[in-house]
Structures are given as structure tokens and as C-alpha cells.
Amino acid sequence: MEKMSNSLSRASWKQFRRNRPAMAALWFLSVMLLLALMAPLLANDRPLYARYHDKHIFPALYPNKTYIFVLSDGSDEYVKSALVNWKTLPLEKAVWAPVAWWPGESDYANAHFVSPGGSQQFRDASGVLTEMPQKFRHRLGTNNTGEDVAAGLIHGARVSLSIGMIAMGIAACIGLLLGAVAGYFGDKGIHMTRGQWSTLIPGLFIAWFYAFHVRHFALTDALQAGGWKAVTSLSFSTMLFTAILLGCWWLGKLLSRIPFFQKGSWLPADNLISRTIEIIHSLPVFMLIITIAAITKPSIVSVMILLGLTSWTGIARLTRAEFLRIRELDYMQAGRSLGLGAARLIWRHALPNALAPALVSIAFGVASAILAESALSFLGVGVPTDLVTWGSLVNEGRQQYSAWWLVVFPGLFIFGTVTAYNLIGDGLRDAMDPKLRKQIRI
Amino acid sequence: MSKVLLRRLLFFLPTLVVISLLSFLISISAPGDPVDRLLPTAGTSGETGLVSKRIMEERQAMRHRLGLDLPAFYLSVSSLSMAAEMPDFQNPEEEEAWRRLTQLCGNAKAATNVYQAFDSWLELHAALDLSVLPDSAYLLVRQSSAIVRSLRQSGNTDLILSSIDRMLDRYSEYEGLNELSDGAMNTRSAVDALGTHTARWKNLVPVVQWNRQNQYHRWLFGDGHWLTGKGAVETKGVIRGDFGRSYTTKLPVSNILRERIGWSLFFTFTSVLLAYLISLPVGLRAAAKPHSLFDRSSSVVLFLLYSMPAFWLATLLLMNFANPDVLKWFPASGVAPAGGFPAGTGWWGRITGTIPYLVLPTICYTYAQLAFLSRMTRVSTLEIYGQDFIRTARAKGLSARTVLYRHAFRNALLPIITVFANVFPAAIGGSVILETVFSIPGMGREIVQAIYQQDYPVIVAVFTLTGVLTLAGYLLADILYSVADPRITWKR
Fold this sequence. Notes:
- The complex is a heterodimer of chains A (442) and B (492).
- By secondary structure, chain A is mainly alpha-helical.
- Chain A folds into 2 domains: 45-148, no CATH class; 151-431, MetI-like (MetI-like fold, Orthogonal Bundle).
- Helices cover 63% and strands 8% of the residues of chain A.
- Chain A contains 17 helices and 9 strands.
- In chain A, the strands form 4 sheets. A 3-stranded antiparallel sheet of chain A has the order 2-1-5, with no helix packed on it.
- In chain A, strand 1 and strand 2 form a beta hairpin.
- The longest helix of chain A has 38 residues, at 342-379.
- The radius of gyration of chain A is 28 Å and the shape is elongated.
- With 492 residues, chain B is mainly alpha-helical.
- Helix content of chain B is 66%, strand content 2%.
- Chain B contains 17 helices and 2 strands.
- Chain B has a two-stranded antiparallel ribbon with strand order 1-2.
- The longest helix of chain B is centred in the last third of the chain and has 39 residues, at 347-385.
- Chain B is elongated and about 110 Å long.
- The interface between A and B is large, with 51 and 63 residues.
């Protein structure tokens, strides 16, 4: 069985590799990922390596370090890495990052939209303005306050890529789980006796009451304090919740021995989950995100969570359809007759074969998550205003249309990344969907 | 037909309820106190002196009028200790502090006693004859009343007791403040009573209450009769289009929305219509000869358009075609000249005068849907082309044109119609960005401005309305679907 799925994925990979645009997109994204991972080495206002007073230092790697240099006359010179202006320091030797600026760092000598090719100025240690040295040039221009666009682009890649991955990671967890449960069990897969119904439903309420309602003030105080306290307090509540529910489960089992409580009915898992999918699908998601972002503190993490919580429906729907098909297959029957548990069957045997459509949906979902985040930062809603992202750069370009570099470069980055994810989604669909493969040959 | 409609309407009911619950949840969890925003005199500036009894009562009356003293929902869960008569609060912080005190001792009555002691202590401040006091004592009285009001919001007994001790020390520095000392002593004994009259077991007994009067009901149905709306005083309820008043302009939100919704709907419908008109021929032609030059080039262009961020294209268009330095073909913002049309312009002049303003926004509204729809048309037509009845039609000797437009098109239309349900919400969501970029006075721009100004009633109203409009889009798609395909009988 392992070999089967292996060869299937190998065939898909072969098919995918033949898709030249999709492969190009994969390369493009790898470069982007590299850019994001190495951002502090590519755009940094501190030198990567420097020699100062005969000491070899790596300021880019230690942003908060204080260097102590012993001068020839015996006195000490303190250099605080975070505060000093490294560009004007008389370094004996220095290796600079390709972009010698940090995103959001204002260079007032080059404020008010300095173009990439235009003349740029440099304020040296004595405060005199001179021609900008080649190594410090703002290679893609600056914005109104003299922030470097190239640095913003490189560090913005971190925000965009992580938004896409984390939001879709959350969506994939929810979507795969709910889709699998709905498709595998259907409406007649989970049987509950009257005993279990009559203990579990009140049990949910009681567990919530003692774990969260009674501990409301303790929890809010701990969450406000943050850190370790928040984690322990939250996990205590969660454990209490689970413990009470488990207790109710056993009580239900006990109760089921009484003849009246032995009878029962099916839990319509599929119906419940499908209705939930439909309701969430028909909400105006972008409006919802904007509205919720308006009443909470601007934070990139909450945007990720919101995007994740609202975009799982497509994945769940496709996974459910796959599970409906797979659960009837012979090998699943065989597994059931061997006495394998539902969890093992779903996780080990059905899920690997049901992943294909979900993967396609995830690739498209990442593209739209990146688009949504850049639109939010463009509007300045929900994302902290001091965070430099691709969307916020385009927005700054709106202040002055002659500053084309503020609109064109970040826009190309967004456009390229979104196109790449869409191309990969397309390529995955072509590679894994045999039905579509046949269609193309018509 | 009406049966279909009824079925679908019933089906959308749960979604409507969810939208209303979400909107309500957002509106009550918005930061800040509505009383502060709507009552200009009632600043919470605690440090500036004596808040007169009149203002306190005004605040309490306002809370009552807005229904903020009601429970939030029909069902409320609390513990036995909390399920008791509450004192009058001036803001949500005081209510939370009272709940903290109650939770501490499990005795609501003792906590309420503390608040009554606070009240009488505050009244003693107001009753003092300030003219006979020296200036420094006068300052102390002002400070002390501010401190008492902040203690009402703390909910921390240690803090309350230590503050009372400090205040007692300072009162004793002056003569004539004995009354205040008495008030402080009373409060201290009330706080001490919290520790002695405990009933913490009451915290552990759940109580479920049914509240006929609650904030959600009021928000949804108004404060009159829920169905007819008769007897409504303060609010007629969201179902009758009453979203309260805007915090910034103090005008009814529904008036603002009525002015704004026109442009949003205009652009949404025009763009959807245009997108269908352009994409159907393009998709059909691409599908007629798959892998032809037209098919390949159109799909590349459409694919690129599909990934294009709307705000970027809008900015690029403005940069190139509404920019005096490059090309100034179109006006840069708005839907009419800044000062309005000159007097005496006829309706025809108005229409032709508006068109230049509409060109760039319409392009931006349309292109994304265009790409999506053309791809859908192509795929679904290709699928139809593989079926037997097309082969039969061809075998009969019908021309390629007839086969395409008479046989394939109608069947290919079905999935494209269902897509309408996806296109419509996308257009509404897109309006937020495009209306902001082009300064179109529509709902999308309104919500963004409301967010900048923290005007929560407007935000919630726009969200609710777009939710309902989105649902209406789904409904319309369903109806169109059943019209286009008579096989669908909606039997489930």
C-alpha cells in the first residue's frame, strides 16, 4: 500500500515537472523564501563584518551587543550596536549587506522620494552632505521619510510568505479534520446511545462552566500578564475541560447499561459540518476580517488567525468529497474487516490518498491570503502601521505618483508571488487530477 | 418557482442568524464605552475634579436608554453568587469590578453594599461647602472624589483598602473633612465585610437565566413590539434598518448608508454585467479551438490578470492616466467635479460629465471577475464538448457555430451561473479597496473611514448590510440556476 501511494505521488511529481510554468513558479518561490530567510543578511543597517580598532566584529549578527574597544591610549570606547550609526563610524574594514539599510529606518538626507537612479546624498560623520557612496545607495529609491524601498521589499517578504503559510496551515488543519470526519463517518457513522446523549450534552455545558466561566477573571488576568502564566492558566482550563468531558463520557457508558438508555440515534456529523461550511462560506469574508480588525489591536498574528479561521471551507469541502469516495474502496473495507480503528484508518490509509485536492486548494488559498494581507496593509487596517510590508509600500506611493518606484517594485513582488502560487495550484491540479488530464487531450 | 424561493429563503435563515449574531458580537465587544462617545459632557477624565451628581445620573440614564444595563443575550449563564440584583453602574468597568468583588466572596449583597458605601462617600464630597475650605483642602477633595471613582472600577480589595487608609491620613490633615473620613470608614467596613460574609460555594453553582429583555433582542427588534415595531422609543431595531447613530456625525447610520449604497451597487452590478458580456464570448471562442493561438494567448493574459492585486492595478492606472505628468485622460478621484456640476447642467450633461470619472473604476472592478469567468466558461464548455450529444449534433451535419452557440452554450452556462454567487461577494469585498483608491462615496469607503475614526455603529452596519447583500447574491444565483436548467426540481 505504501508503495502504491508512493508511485502515485511520483507519477504526479513527474507530471508536475513537465509543467514548465509551474516549475518556474516553484523556482521563483524558492528564491523568495531564501530572500525572506536571509533578510537580515541582505538588508541591514549594520555591517556584516567589520574591523575596528583591530578587532573583528559581526554587528549584523548581534543587534543588541555593546562592543568595548581598548584604544591605544588605554581608554575604552563603547559602541552600542543598536544605537550607533555604523555608516559614519571610521571602520578600518567593513563588508556591507547588498542593501545597507533597515526597513523603516529614516534617512533624512534622502527624504521626500529620492529615485533609484537620481542623485543621493550622504551625511558623513562631520554632518557635511556629500555624494552617496555606491555601497550605501538606496538601490530602489526611498519614500517620503527616506526609508529604503529595497530593504522594505526584502523584509516584507517575511511577512507575506509567513502570512500565506501560517494562515493556510491553520485552515488546512481545520479543513482536513472536519472534511475527513464529515466524509468518513457521514450521517450514519457515529452512534450515540441515549445514555451518552444525556451525559455529553450537559457535560459540555458543565465543563465549559467550570473550566472557563468560573475561572474567567483568573484567565483574563493571566492572559494579560502573558508569558508562562498565560500558558499554565490556559492549559489548566483546557485540562479541566477535557477531564470533565471524559468523566461524562464514562458516566454515559455506565448509564448505557440501563435498558432505557441503551437505545440511541446517529450523530449527523456530515450534516452538521456541511451546514457549518455553507454558513461560513456565505459570509463576506474580507468585510468580516476588516470589521474584526477594526475592533481589535492591530496585529499580524490576529490577521493570520482570522484568515485561517475563514478560509478552511474549500479544503473541507474537497476533503469531504474525497473521503466519501475513498471510504467505499476495497482497501478501506479490508482495513475495517481487520478491525482497524477509525482514527488509524483515517489517518494512515485514507488521508494520504485524499490530500491531492486539498493541496490544490491550499496553493490557491495561500495566494489569496497573501493578496488579502497586502490589501489590508494597503488600507492600513488590522496591520500595525509601523510594519513595512509590500502593501504598505504601494500605499505610500499613492501620496506622490511621480514616485513610481514605490508602486511598481512592491506591486511586482505581490503580483509575482501570487502568480507563482496560482501557477503551482494549477500545476498541482493538472498533475493530480486524472480526470482533467484526460480533458486536456480532447 | 415560489416554492424554490421559499425553500432557499428558509435555508438562508440560519446564515442570517449567524450574520446578525456576529454583527452583534462585534458591536458589543468594540472598545470604549458608547456613553462616552454619545454623551459629550461625560468625559471619563477622572483627575479633573468633582463629577457632579447630575452628570453621574445622566450617564446612568443614558446607559439605561441605550439598553446597556440589560443582559447581553436571551440565555445568560452565571453562577448563583452573581444572579442577584445589581447596583446602577456608570460604565462597563464598574460592572466588571463588581463582578470581581462578588466572585471574591461569593456574596453579591456584600459587594453591592461596597458600592452603596462608595456612592454615599461620593455624595459627601458633593455636599461639602467648599468655600470655607483652604485651597489645598479643596484640591484634596477634588482628588479624593476622582480616586473614589477610580476605586469603583478596580475590583481589587487590597488596593481599595490601602487607598482608603491613605485617604484617611490625608483627611486628618484638615479640619472640616470629618464627614469624608466617616464615608471612608463606612466603605472600609463594607470592604471588610466581604471577607467575613463569604459564600464562595455559590460561585460553583451554575444558573441559567432566560432574559426576555436583552441587548441582542433590542438591537435586532428595537425597544417596541418585536414584530410591528409599535411603541419604539430609542431604537426601531436592525430589522427595520435602524443601526443607531454614528459616533462622529451623530446622524442616524441608516441615513448615511442610504446615501452611500447607490454607488456601491452601481459598480457591483455594472462590473458583473460587463464581466459576463466580455467573458462569455472569450471563453467560448477559446473552448471552440483548444490550444489554438487565441486560446493560449487569452488564457495567459487572463491568468496574469487573475493574480493582479486590484489596489495595485488601480494605483498604476491612476499613476499613468490621471496624472498631469504622464497622461491626464481621466479625473483622479470622486464621481463628480469637486465643486459639483455648474448650475444649470441638464441631466444629459450630468451623465456625460460623470462618465470620465467612471472609466478607471469600472475597469478595476471588472477585470478580476473577467479572468475568473472566462476560465470557468472555457472549462465548462470543454467539458460539454466531450459529451455524446455534441458528437451527435456534429454528426447531423450542423455547423460548428450552431453546435457551439445552440447546443454547447446553454449547457455550459449552468456552472457559470453558479459562479455568480462567488462573483457578487467578491465585487462587494473589492469595493472596499477600489472605493478608497478612487474616492468613490460608497459603502466600502465609508467602512474604511469609519475604521479610521473608530465609528463602530457604522462599521457594524456596513458589515451587516454586506452580509445580507451577499446572501441575496446567492439567492439570485439559485433562482437563475433553476430558470436556466428546468431539470432542477429542488427535491432534497
